[in-house]
Amino acid sequence: MSLFHTLSIFRQLVSAVAALNERGIVHRDVHPTRIHLFNGMVKFNIIGLPYNFKKLMKNMNYSGHVSYSAPELITEGQNFGVNSDTWSLGCCLYYIVTKQDPF
After folding, report:
1. Would you say the pTM of this structure is higher than 0.90?
2. What distance in Å separates the CA atoms of residue 23 and residue 10, rounded to the nearest whole number?
């Protein structure tokens, strides 16, 4: 995959998440399995939205995608916001470039 194509995919993904964030929605589960390509256009799957913190934390065991989640989602703190999605976007970029989970 060329650098131009990679950046195009990532820019479309960022735009999709930014549209959610602008509407006051923090997705909290951004990861590569939610990214689909259709005729060169990125489709971002938001099935399962909205999540709430108690669904993500079940019996003190995290049930999301740990490798793509911001540290504040994994710890017991509840101070998270759009920065959590930004962290996950960075992890997705890492995956798109290397084809490996970031952590």
Report:
1. no
2. 20
Name the residues annotated as catalytic. 29
Task: Dump pLDDT digits (tens) for 40-58.
Answer: 888 888 765 444 444 444 4
For the record, the structure tokens of 5 come out as: 């194509």
Which of 42, 43, 35 lies closest to 65 in space, CA to CA?
35
Q: Which residues of 71-85 are buried (b: 16+ CB within 10 A; e: fewer)?
A: eebeeeeeebebebb
CA atoms within 13 A on the CB side of 56: 22
Q: Are 23 and 83 in contact (CB under 8 A)?
A: no
